[in-house]
Design goal:
The protein has 351 residues and is of the alpha+beta class. It has three domains: 20-71, no CATH class; 78-250, no CATH class; 269-350, no CATH class. 49% of the residues lie in helices and 15% in strands. The chain has 13 helices and eight strands. It has helices at residues 21-37, 47-63, 77-85, 92-98, 109-127, 131-147, 172-188, 224-239, 241-245, 249-256, 269-284, 289-302, 325-335; strands at 153-159, 162-169, 191-200, 205-213, 306-310, 315-318, 341-344, 347-350. Helix 7 (172-188) packs antiparallel against helix 8 and helix 11 (269-284) packs parallel to helix 13. The longest helix has 19 residues, at 109-127. It is elongated, with a radius of gyration of 30 Å. The N and C termini lie far apart (86 Å). The mean pLDDT is 87.
């Protein structure tokens, strides 16, 4: 095989090829369009310049080890730049475990809306909200999602003003988190969730979602309150309590922990003191004397037994009704092992 270094790049050679009239016309129109948009770009100054650039770049790609099949999986520069600006690479096994606890949570909605607003602006700019543009854009996103191992299949259809999204994922928790992201993204676009079905096979995790357009879809300047309401409506339909109650117990506990009217309790006082004291033994290894006292107060606050009024002077008040004597006794016994308690009105001080 003749090495490229033995060939002069200063000379030109003619190579005749046969292409269809359709392809010829497509290439000519593309070059003219790009030349008008980028008059200084030498790659579009002529058909020969364009062909030379395309063929040389493809040969460099093949020389790097890629083949013809890889041409189907290239990520276009606009999608890559947009996606990489708002994402990061992670170690999949670790990330798969980490996102599980976030399954039924969508706090910090305002922060998410600000981020997804950029997603909306990008989609509107690239698709002009035309059906053909949206379908083409979904194919462009499909390529980078495949490349990042997030999905194995991604398809978007539009039928009777309804968007039907079907895709498969590899990892249970990442797939679910990705689906949450799609629901939020669709909501920000002004789409209302009609139905969602998730199927978990041994190898593939599948989802099918159907959305319909709302008046927000065609509105360029959106009202955050309207979008926030639509996100809440769609997420509640996607999460729903049926799914949560039939999932692992920890997801329900995380949900319950946000309700201050619910308290943690123990079956009896003895088991409560055993567990709390073992917890405190671990705290002693890492906390200073004052930090230890504050950490114990925070433990009881997480139980929803007390509310800390001032962290500096270690003051607190009870959240419990007076009839909850068992919990009050436990707090009293535990705190007296690390200090003294003083009461002024309804406020307690750990000295």
């Amino acid at each position: 095989m003749l090495s490229s270094r033995n060939l002069s790049k200063k000379k030109t050679a003619t190579q005749n090829i046969s292409i269809s009239p359709y392809l010829k016309d497509w290439i000519n129109r593309y070059i003219k369009l790009e030349a008008r948009k980028n008059p200084k770009d030498q790659r579009f100054k002529s058909i020969s310049a364009f062909y030379n650039f395309v063929m040389e770049k493809n040969m460099e790609i093949f020389r790097s080890g890629k083949g013809l099949d890889d041409l189907e999986n290239f990520v276009d520069a606009k999608i890559s730049k947009f996606y990489e600006t708002h994402t990061f690479k992670a170690f999949i096994p670790l990330f798969e475990q980490a996102v599980e606890l976030n399954k039924y949570n969508f706090d910090n909605l305002d922060f998410l809306l600000d981020s997804y607003q950029k997603y909306r602006e990008f989609i509107i700019k690239e698709s002009k909200l035309k059906e053909s543009g949206l379908i083409e854009l979904s194919k462009r996103f499909h390529t980078i999602l495949i490349k990042n191992n997030l999905i194995s299949k991604f398809k978007v259809k539009i039928e009777n003003n309804k968007f039907i999204i079907e895709y498969n994922g590899h990892y249970r928790n990442i797939h679910y988190e990705q689906t949450k992201g799609l629901v939020i993204g669709a909501s920000v676009m002004g789409l209302k969730l009609i139905n969602s079905d998730l199927f978990e096979g041994l190898e593939e995790k599948e989802v099918k979602m159907i959305f319909e357009t709302t008046p927000l879809f065609a509105t360029k300047e959106i009202n955050k309150k309207d979008i926030r309401n639509l996100v809440h409506e769609n997420m509640e339909k996607f999460f729903n309590h049926y799914n949560m109650i039939n999932d692992k117990t920890k997801h329900l506990w995380i949900f319950l922990s946000k309700n201050k009217d619910i308290i943690v309790d123990f079956k009896n006082e003895v088991s409560a003191l055993e567990w709390i004291n073992s917890f405190i033994e671990n705290l002693r290894k890492f906390a200073s004397k004052k930090d230890l006292k504050l950490s114990i107060l925070k433990l009881f606050e997480h139980f929803h037994w007390i509310v800390i009024k001032d962290e500096y002077n270690l003051s607190f008040g009870y959240e419990l009704p007076e009839i909850n004597l068992k919990q009050r006794r436990i707090v009293d016994k535990v705190l007296k092992t690390v200090g003294n308690l003083e009461k002024k009105n309804e406020t307690f001080y750990l000295i």
